[in-house]
Specification:
This protein has ten helices and six strands. By secondary structure, the chain is α/β, with parallel strands linked by helices. It folds into two domains: 3-194, Rossmann fold; 196-245, no CATH class. The N and C termini lie far apart (53 Å). It binds adenosine-5'-triphosphate (ATP) and magnesium ion.
Length: 245
């Protein structure tokens, strides 16, 4: 075994370096593909989960890591649920899928979360035979070119844009064509997903069910912690959710 491969093995065996990140890259003879699903996840919902699963299947990913943002760059002027609650919901929602991992990588970092910085830190941890696939929704994909240090994002990750069938991609396409950096983008068309966290928050606030919009474990957590104006201290009181808890 050459010294570089040995170095990689030592690195991947170090629990302090890896933390809760999935360990990949041990076999230097193969390429690994790490999916990264970043977001506020306030709360996580089936749109996020279905998009990540579709990316996993269609791009032949090894694992998808969900990283709730500590202090999301785009939501500095908005009230965001605590990162611990958002992380807990992400953990609950991903726990039954063997190729999904929830990570505290961004939550545990002080300051505003920027994707370029996250990718740089991940690149320093993972060996070169691990490729990054950064997954975003249709609304976010066209904006990536405007994100802080977009050149680093273009250099370090493939982009995966989850779109709804019929969604007009020309705007995103134009943004990438005009960008001074070369982005590698794959679009995935995913049926039936007009779900957003804002929609879920609104529904909770007005006492409506979250059934089939997010896993029941997440709904239970929202009630238990009274997030988003969830009313009633007792379980099973929310209309339509009697059996969800
Ligand atoms: P909010 O309504 O608060 O903006 P959101 O539903 O957009 O929340 P975020 O945490 O902001 O959720 O999004 C994280 C990532 O998931 C983004 O890249 C976003 O584009 C993507 N995403 C959100 N909803 C969907 C969906 N229904 N299908 C596919 N991707 C989605
Ligand atoms: Mg959003």
């Amino acid at each position: 075994m050459d010294s570089q491969a040995q170095g990689e093995l030592q690195r991947s065996d170090d629990p302090i370096v890896w933390g809760d990140l999935p360990q990949l890259g041990q076999n230097p003879a193969r390429i690994y593909r790490l999916g990264i699903m970043g977001g506020t996840f306030d709360p996580i919902h089936n749109g996020h989960l279905v998009a990540a699963e579709a990316a996993f299947d269609r791009l032949d990913l090894d694992v998808v890591v969900f990283m709730p943002a500590g202090s999301p760059a785009f939501k500095q002027d908005k009230k965001v649920t605590s990162s611990e609650d958002r992380y807990a919901m992400t953990l609950l929602a991903t726990s039954d899928n063997p190729h999904f991992v929830a990570s505290r990588f961004e939550v545990d970092r002080e300051g505003i979360t920027y994707t370029a910085e996250t990718l740089r830190r991940l690149r320093a941890i993972y060996p070169d035979n691990v490729e990054f696939y950064f997954i975003t929704g249709a609304d976010a994909i066209a904006e990536v070119v405007t994100w802080r240090d977009a050149a680093t994002i273009a250099e370090l990750a493939h982009l995966v844009g989850a779109t709804r069938p019929g969604y007009d991609l020309s705007c995103a396409q134009r943004a990438f064509d005009d960008a001074p950096y070369d982005f590698d983008v794959t679009y995935l068309s995913i049926p039936a997903l007009a779900i957003s966290s804002s929609y879920l928050r609104e529904r909770v606030g007005s006492g409506q069910s979250l059934r089939y919009l997010t896993p029941d474990s997440v709904t239970g957590y929202i009630h238990k912690r009274h997030l988003y104006g969830a009313r009633g201290a007792r379980y099973g009181q929310m209309r339509g959710d009697e059996n969800a808890l």
